[in-house]
Description:
Layout: H1 2-19, H2 23-45, H3 48-64, H4 75-93, H5 111-123, H6 128-139, H7 144-151, H8 155-175
Helix pairs in contact: 1-2, 2-3, 2-4, 2-6, 3-4, 6-8, 7-8
Amino acid sequence: HERHEEAAMKEHTIIEHIRHGDVNALDTLIRQYYPQIYSYVYARVKHRDIAADITQEVFIRFTQHIDSYTFQGKTKQYLLRIAINQCNSWYAKYKEIALPDDLEIADEKTEDTYDRQRLIFYLNKLPDEQKDVLLLKYFEQLKSKEIATLLNISESTVKTRVRLGLKKLKTYMKKEEWL
């Protein structure tokens, strides 16, 4: 518990430094959260360059609105909220889902990579509301309550979407329509 409070204090200090224009503090925050935010975005858009662009935009938006950001020790969730909005905006603009840029060589890689690619393929067939909760729960390891807060929905809605999303995933995977 003390370590968590210490980490929160350190993060609060970093946020304050960013507010005062400290570029090194911003670099520290980006290094800390970039891999997780990029991972989420990549799982949504399935294209490295687009994911990198959207992730960069997440941090730009964060810094643009840093003065109105109220620190509550949940910076990762705040960045994920921005990422969700950015992905939704991207999809609204470019309805087409980009195929993974390494799909054609996925079966030549390790079984884990193949399974992960196959899972992402099926996840992207789900409705956005189901895909979002599954990505946040299983890729970002968030609890149902955190997801509910992040998406501004009830915890029971999160659980329903998870259940329905997993059911659909199993149906898709049984059909094996992946390649």
